[in-house]
Write a structure and sequence with these properties.
Layout lengths: L5 H12 L4 E3 L1 H29 L8 H25 L1 E3 L15 E6 L5 E7 L10 E3 L3 H6 L7 E6 L2 E11 L1
Helix pairs in contact: 1-3, 2-3
Length: about 170
Amino acid sequence: MCHYDLPKIVVALSFITMAQINHTTKEGYDKLMTDLAALRAQRVVISAQIGEARDKGDLSENAEYDAAREAQGMLEMRIAKLEATISSSRIIDTKHINNKTVQILNKVTIKNLKTNAILEYTLVSESEANLREKKLSIHTPIAKALMGKKKGDLINITVPGGVLEVELLDISI
């Protein structure tokens, strides 16, 4: 029998009600599904840990049992959040992406007008963002400022460090 920490589940379920559409690529969606399967597989391991801890006696003073229950609650919260992300996901067909104006899944090349540094990013959903791979979430200040802009536009972007002045050099798919 599984026991879940109700307050944590309520918090996790609040993510579902606040879900917004998560535009993603097919590869991004497949990764989300793989991650969900891995998390669900961990349920068996944590249930076994709870069972072992329960067998050790008095639950009121059993730190192992408390730790396993805490891990179970955190796991259920992560699963609920990932399920909410997946349920709100919409796979974008790259055939419908153009390079006239900046939109999600475009690769943009910008030039910092102050430092003359050239930067390239692919604008992706929050779930696919990864700065090491130069994938920038569309919810970041830079991506928000670039959305809808055209090649050659000069853009002032308000970032935590001040105002960044950039020129949009290229938009590609």
